[in-house]
Write a structure and sequence with these properties.
By secondary structure, the protein is α/β, with parallel strands linked by helices. Helices cover 44% and strands 15% of the residues. It contains twelve helices and twelve strands. It has helices at residues 9-16, 20-28, 35-47, 54-60, 77-92, 106-118, 134-149, 172-185, 201-216, 233-246, 258-270, 304-316, and strands spanning 66-71, 96-101, 123-127, 153-157, 166-170, 191-195, 226-228, 252-255, 280-282, 299-301, 326-329, 332-334. The longest helix is centred in the first third of the chain and has 16 residues, at 77-92. InterPro entries: HTH_LacI (IPR000843), LacI/GalR-like_sensor (IPR046335), Lambda_DNA-bd_dom_sf (IPR010982), Peripla_BP_I (IPR028082).
Length: 345
């Protein structure tokens, strides 16, 4: 009888053209290497059907009391609100939370995933938008598949292409469409949009939903009135400055996140443009601070802490073979004093 020989870590290292130590650190998630080298080692391991020994797998399945949370920017009130919900749920389960910020860098997202896999966290949460980048999302998928193979649980919050993970999905497209219809109901027909980076699925959904609802009412937004900027207060400020320098031809500005709207409000105020007297302004998320702005901001309210709790709870449920769980959360339009009816030409 022919006995099949299992490939070793040394075989993987040789196939990838790296040292044994480097191959070990890459596959254990403890190496700080470039994406190309990491991908070469991982592909070699997959090609050779390499699997770690039973002892290593037993360690990976140990009862860790740690949950890894990967978000874009914990300093953003949107993510801070969600993180509070995660921590509240983690406290109920006597779990500790380790938090990492990617700052919207997809390579850093993969690196954090690899690192947390190496630390054998019990569950991993990806909080925030996925990326409209198939190649990078494929790298993330492979990393998460390796983590799940050791017994780890994964949940995502927001839309991530092709990850096949349990998910809590804010209905960004639908919420933005609801907001557009509400603003149309106030009489507005000339709009500008402050868009975040188009690489993010959240931006694609929010801007797309807003524009589609306007189009259904026969209203179009000129390309030059859609201004991109970072998903930050300063990004909103600079985007609004560009609109103002070109000459405002609109009656209402939609910022695809509240922090951008806060920056836009500061820019408008600096130029003596009244809100809502001269122009209406709306955002998305309903972070706590916008209620204290002058004027308070019209927005689409998402239950941020509840979203975080629901994502963590998904990882506590038994894994369901063959099909991911998906929980959706619809936003609610909240009209405040930053928008006013428009009846002019």
């Amino acid at each position: 009888m022919v006995r099949q020989t299992q490939n070793t870590l040394g075989d993987v290292a040789k196939a990838a053209g790296v040292s044994l130590a480097t191959a070990s650190r890459v596959l254990n998630g403890t190496a700080s290497v470039g994406a190309a080298l990491r991908d070469r080692v991982v592909r070699a391991a997959e090609r050779l059907a390499y699997s770690p020994n039973a002892h290593a797998q037993a360690l990976a399945r140990s009862s860790s009391r740690t949950v890894g949370v990967i978000c874009h920017d914990v300093g953003d009130p949107y993510f801070a609100g969600i993180a509070r919900g995660v921590m509240r749920a983690a406290n109920r389960h006597d779990l500790q939370v380790v938090l990492g910020s990617t700052f919207h860098d997809p390579d850093r997202e993969v690196a954090y995933t690899s690192m947390m896999r190496g630390h054998r966290v019990r569950a991993m949460l990806l909080i925030g938008s996925g990326f409209e980048d198939r190649q990078r999302q494929e790298g993330l998928r492979r990393e998460l598949d390796r983590y799940r193979a050791t017994g780890g649980r994964v949940a995502v919050l927001s839309r991530h292409r092709g990850l096949r993970a349990d998910a809590v999905l804010p209905e960004n497209r639908e919420g933005a469409a609801d907001l557009a219809r509400a603003l149309l109901g106030l009489g507005h027909r000339r709009f500008a949009v402050l868009s975040g980076p188009p690489l993010l699925t959240t931006v694609v959904d929010r801007v797309g939903g807003f524009l589609e609802a306007l189009a259904e009412a026969g209203v179009t937004v000129e390309r030059e009135d859609i201004v991109e900027g970072p998903f930050t207060r300063d990004g909103g400020y600079e985007a609004a400055q560009r609109l103002i320098r070109r000459g405002l031809r609109v009656t209402c500005v939609f910022a695809s996140t509240d922090v951008m709207a806060a920056g836009a409000l500061a820019a408008l105020r600096e130029h003596g443009i009244g809100v809502p007297g001269d122009i209406s302004l709306a955002g998305f998320d309903d972070i706590p601070t916008i209620r204290d702005l002058t004027p308070p901001l019209t927005t689409v309210a998402l239950p941020l802490e509840d979203l975080g709790e629901r994502a963590l709870e998904l990882t506590m449920l038994p894994e369901r073979a063959g099909r991911a769980r998906v929980e959706k959360a619809r936003g609610r339009v909240v009209l405040r004093e930053s928008t006013a009816p428009f009846s002019g030409a």
